[in-house]
Amino acid sequence: MFAVDRLFLQLFIFCLFFQSNLCFSSTRTAILPLKTKLISFESLPRPPNKLFFHHNVSLTVSLTVGTPPQTVTMVIDTGSELSWLHCKKTSNTPSTFDPLRSSSYSPIGCSSPTCTTRTRDFTIPASCDPNNLCHATLSYADASSVEGNLASDTFHLGDSGLTGTVFGCMDSGSGSSSTPDEDSKTTGLIGMNRGSLSFVTQMGFPKFSYCISGHDSSGVLLFGEANFPWLGPLNYTPLVQISTPLPYFDRIAYTVQFEGIKVSGKVLALPKSVFVPEHSGAGQTMVDSGTQFTFLLGPVYTALKNEFMEQTKGVLRVLDDPNFVFQGAMDLCYLVELTRTSLPPLPTVSLMFRGAEMSVSAERLMYRVPGVVRGSDGVYCFTFGNSDLLGIEAYVIGHHHQQNVWMEYDLAKSRVGFVEIRVGA
């Protein structure tokens, strides 16, 4: 395993040598610094009529769009297709893209093939607005939504400009329920799934990778080959692909075959059928950088929760409060003395996929809930949640469990690869 600190140092020195926050080489490899954005826990909405579910950490990158270039900050989301930018400045969204300032900006008409055929995988069909422009509404699992018109413009990677890149120019005042604190920090979202309009598909790169540091807010996003001599062999698991449309199966997500879970080497006694999608498509397993934590369907979550509690009995103090459910789905939480500088030793949880395993250990198993204190104790929650409580009929592997892991999405060979990268040394 290679040290994360050394990885970031090498790549960032390389970028600084070219005096840019982005590197682009003649071999079609682009490197962008990756950041994590923390959203204030107190600012997140708590709707009385729905479960509270909202990420309070997002992965972001900065790049430039338009002619002349405008700097934008975008959330990286491997679970979404269409990239979009806020195009209407409000008090909640001071960070916006102004299409009137870009000579290369071009709106897309609703009769365009882009609107009529390439939007077929949108959950809400594209429509025609009063100006005959292609109108899109995008909704997300946290109940937020954005809407606006499809357009094209130049997205800049280093010295090269990717002209005609399709994205959504969104009116943040049209039904968006994202929070002001989150909107103020980002200009939009960059869709990275396997759809025809995703950013990575439009760029034509056969693969992309990223690595997130587990101890600070830094990371890297790389488009193209990661030909680094210090990067060890990756463990690959094939993507599950279904050509027939199913009501609950996202065909353009990065879907892998989940096969089981181990806790300190002990395989949970679960039937294989619980990991296989149903005839409706419900029960798929998606790798998603846009989701913070990992969510499991009810029976699997309950089995993992019970085994983890059994193996940490006498090591951790359970928070005995049935009304406290973090992010609407994480109901296993613990009390830890505020004076502690580190957590006690914890069992390793291994996620078993076809042909590969992902180990989750130590700090990645617990998350300190910001701003929540019980007496002289802080509250830490188990970083696996119950999908059933969210109404999500899927397994979702979030970015928290991808920390200190080199993640590779190989579109050409239809597989996802990963290898753990050690912090320090």
Question: What order do the helices and strands come in, and which of them pair?
Answer:
Blueprint: H1 4-17, E1 23-24, E2 30-38, E3 57-65, E4 70-77, E5 84-86, E6 106-107, H2 113-116, E7 127-128, E8 134-139, E9 145-157, E10 160-171, H3 180-183, E11 188-191, H4 199-203, E12 207-212, E13 218-223, E14 235-238, E15 255-256, E16 258-263, E17 266-267, E18 284-287, E19 294-296, H5 298-311, E20 317-318, E21 333-337, E22 349-353, E23 356-360, E24 366-374, E25 377-382, E26 384-386, H6 387-390, E27 394-397, E28 405-410, E29 415-420
Parallel strand pairs: 4-11, 5-10, 18-27, 19-26
Antiparallel strand pairs: 1-2, 2-3, 2-13, 3-4, 3-9, 5-11, 6-9, 7-8, 8-9, 9-10, 12-13, 12-28, 14-29, 15-18, 16-17, 16-22, 20-21, 21-25, 22-23, 24-25, 28-29
